[in-house]
Amino acid sequence: MWYNNSISLQLQSDSIVLHGANDSAPGQMLRGSVHLDIQCRTKISSITVVFKGVASNQHLKPNHDIFYHKEVEFLRTIEVAKDFSPGHYIYHFEIPFPGDLPETTGSSLASVRYKISAVAKRNGLAKNLKDTREVKVLRLTLPTTEIEESQSLLRFGELESELAFCIFSPSVVYSPDNEIPIQIGVDSFKTDLKASEIKATIYEVARSPTQNGKPKTKRTKIRETSSKWNTKSCGKMWIQPIVLPANKDTEKVLSDRDNDYVSVHHELNISILLVKGDTIRKRIVIRTSLQFVDAEALEAVRSLPCYEQSMETPPCY
């Protein structure tokens, strides 16, 4: 019977990592094979692999855009279906990835997804065989050496002639599974004005285009920690260390990106509560930027090849 037959996709990897910015990244190749398992003799009119990149945005019309489409035919559509005897048939394929493809994104503003399907068609009303897999497209805009040795975050200045501040972190680039250590320095110009509490918050800011041309923006708090001001002196500055814990669900944190469908960046807000005696005087907020890279892409680049999962036989195209 036809339902005893099956088709399946096997990919060398279900994640593609693009290296570099959209306008400079070289392309990559998605490699895999189609496995057609025939238990009962049957007729098939075509065997194809279809790869699609689809963007969705509820604020645009149309709200679905198939921005990338590739098709590989192993058996072209024919009027007289080809007879397949019981056996296992393997078809290898390669699909090119341009370096400017947008990253996989799951956001309430916009989504970008990639799917690959293998289809064996029969003539008439007979049910087709189909298998579909999702492919992730990730991006690292910086080489891993630059990520690991990126410059430190250092920002300083004065606020309303009342105090000087300094913010320091060992890096400006982090992944969602990293803790972020920060040191905040404050030097009050007024002896009766003191810091009482400090709060550090990271916001993820996503923007997507809309039909009227005005971008839709979503600002999401992804990390926050606070501490009473309990400092040590370092020259004129009083230094308060604080640590933003790693995100528990790293997949919900997007890496920084900028493409036609969605842009994402991250803001670090440092809030300092100032008191005069027992009275709250004011709360000041200092804003700066941090960059988040994709943790999964970073792990894929750092890991050694897994030869056990490589193809048993070389591709035959």
Euclidean distance between termini CA atoms: 31 Å
Poorly predicted runs of 5 or more residues? 306-311
What form results from the Cα inertia axes? elongated
Order of helices and strands: EEEEEEEEEEEHEEEEEEEEEEEH
Question: How many domain modules?
Answer: 2
Averaged pLDDT:
85
Question: Strand share of the residues?
Answer: over 45%
Largest sheet: 6 strands, mixed
Organism: Basidiobolus meristosporus CBS 931.73
Protein name: Arrestin-like N-terminal domain-containing protein
InterPro entries: Arrestin-like_C, Arrestin-like_N, Arrestin_domain-protein, Ig_E-set
GO biological process, one term: ubiquitin-dependent endocytosis
3D architecture notes:
By secondary structure, the protein is mainly beta. The protein folds into two domains: 6-141, Immunoglobulin-like (Sandwich); 144-292, Immunoglobulin-like. The protein is built from two helices and 22 strands. Strands 2, 5, 6, 9, 10 and 11 form a six-stranded mixed beta sheet that branches. Strands 14, 16, 17, 20, 21 and 22 form a six-stranded mixed beta sheet that branches. The protein has a five-stranded antiparallel beta sheet with strand order 12-13-15-19-18, with no helix packed on it. The longest helix is centred in the last third of the chain and has 8 residues, at 295-302. The protein is elongated, with a radius of gyration of 27 Å. It starts with 5 loop residues before the first strand and ends in a 15-residue tail after the last helix. The relative contact order is 0.18. Mean pLDDT is 85; it is low at 306-311.
